[in-house]
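Input structure tokens:
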């Protein structure tokens, strides 16, 4: 066995974008590098029945467990810890319990950041600055986040590594056949997928579709995904029901369809493949990465999006159209332009496809493995010198 690497992350069956990300990364690492050991310590907010990949759990809201976990790993044969970071998946104020873990961990670790705020609170800034000081490397998924890490959090450039958000490497079926199979023949499909929550701005997309449908009655907007578990636990299906009522009031039931389920990766890829346009009308300009937009980019979709940070970077160089925040008319104009200019749409798709090939998981996993190897090798050399 070559390397022994542990990931600290949420993990399926917990329904969370970071859980899916880590599952995909580990799956591809195991396939490409079978001599290594890759294990998960899963962050629990309740009880889950995990598979064999999970070698332990961390109770998210139990402060003492963070130090205990660090001590346990210190006495193990683990070579490297990979921390998947998002403020909301760790306990304490903005996830501060994680500091008890890293401050007691003697094994080298790297941290992948899924949120990088350009205007953090003092506590958020302190936490990320502390993680940056102790991590061997900080991984971010966008160049603009790299600049924020340097300027706002004082993390040196030498520690920052930019990696694409990986996307599944699944062969796609014929687009027209897929449309026929699902009953969407002769429909122009726009889609948005992911766990549904008020921050997604779907209400603005629905209003835009209402305007588009006047000239293009063949348009069909697919809203794909379950309500986010945290939102559902607190508010039930209030947001989804609000959206459904909007559709009825606007009399566009033939132009909007809700697919209320947690989609498998194969289902996501199929829906993306049959889509003519992908849309992310998100409300937060701070969003430094979007797994759903990454998936769409990975499969060469032309994208209409609000200008959050990740979208600005990914749609650069004529790879899509940016619309204004909270502005259904701006979304409408972007979609209408693409429908009325198919040649321009094809050009954007080709531009996005060239970028998307580099985002497939085998390519991304290879880059992670190279980073892991260099850090472990460097750590062993330092031990020999001492």
């Amino acid at each position: 066995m070559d390397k022994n690497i542990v990931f600290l992350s949420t993990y399926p069956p917990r329904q969370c974008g970071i859980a899916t990300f880590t599952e995909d990364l580990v799956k591809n690492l195991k396939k490409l590098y079978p001599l290594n050991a890759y294990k998960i310590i899963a962050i629990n907010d309740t009880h889950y029945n995990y598979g064999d990949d999970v070698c332990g759990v961390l109770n998210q809201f139990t402060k003492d467990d963070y130090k205990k976990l660090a001590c346990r790993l210190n006495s193990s044969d683990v070579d490297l810890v990979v921390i998947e970071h998002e403020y909301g998946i760790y306990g304490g104020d903005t996830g501060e319990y994680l500091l008890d873990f890293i401050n007691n961990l003697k094994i080298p670790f790297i941290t992948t950041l899924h949120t990088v705020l350009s205007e953090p609170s003092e506590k958020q800034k302190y936490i990320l600055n502390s993680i940056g000081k102790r991590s061997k490397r900080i991984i971010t998924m966008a160049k603009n986040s790299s600049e924020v890490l340097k300027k706002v959090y004082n993390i040196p450039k030498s520690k920052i590594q930019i990696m694409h958000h990986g996307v599944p490497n699944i062969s796609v079926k014929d687009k027209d056949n897929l449309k026929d199979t699902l009953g969407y023949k002769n429909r122009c499909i726009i889609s948005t997928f992911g766990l549904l929550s008020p921050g997604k701005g779907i209400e603005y997309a629905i209003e835009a579709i209402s305007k588009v449908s006047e000239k293009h009655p063949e348009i069909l907007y697919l809203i794909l995904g379950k309500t986010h578990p945290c939102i559902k636990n607190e508010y039930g299906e209030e947001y989804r029901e609000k959206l459904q009522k909007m559709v009825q009031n606007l009399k566009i039931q033939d132009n909007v369809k809700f697919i209320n389920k947690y989609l498998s990766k194969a289902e996501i890829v199929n829906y993306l493949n049959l889509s003519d346009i992908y849309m992310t009308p998100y409300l937060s300009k701070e969003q430094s990465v979007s797994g759903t937009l990454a998936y769409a980019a990975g499969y060469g979709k032309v994208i209409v999006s609000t200008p959050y940070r990740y979208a600005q970077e990914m749609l650069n160089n004529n790879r899509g159209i940016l619309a204004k925040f909270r502005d259904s008319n701006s979304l409408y104009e972007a979609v209408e332009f693409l429908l009325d200019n198919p040649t321009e749409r094809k050009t954007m798709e080709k531009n996005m496809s060239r970028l998307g090939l580099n985002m497939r998981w085998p390519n991304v996993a290879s880059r992670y493995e190279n980073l892991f190897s260099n850090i472990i090798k460097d750590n062993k050399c330092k031990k020999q010198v001492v």
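The radius of gyration is 22 Å. Residues 312 and 322 are 7 Å apart (CA to CA).
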